[in-house]
Write a structure and sequence with these properties.
single chain; alpha+beta; Alpha-Beta Plaits; four-stranded antiparallel sheet; about 25% helix; globular; BON domain-containing protein
Length: about 70
């Protein structure tokens, strides 16, 4: 698996204590009680580790979406 981009939507607003731990992910928006994160992961193990980290902070994950690269 090559580096791929994912969008993660979580319920609530994440503070800096949590977002600082999300290496490679940026907060792209906060709206309607959700926070949208976007970042790149090098492999599936990193994605699972990130989701486990969020669960460890008791963050409710609403969705995880693979972002397809534009054709090129």
């Amino acid at each position: 698996m090559s580096v791929e981009t994912f969008d993660i939507v979580v319920r609530g607003e994440l503070g800096p204590m949590i977002t600082d731990e999300l290496e490679g992910f940026d907060v792209v928006s906060r709206e309607l009680g959700t926070t949208h994160l976007r970042g790149q992961v090098p492999d599936q193990a990193r994605l699972v580790g990130l989701l486990d980290l969020l669960r460890g902070f008791n963050v409710e994950i609403e969705s995880v979406t693979h972002v397809l690269a534009p054709p090129g």
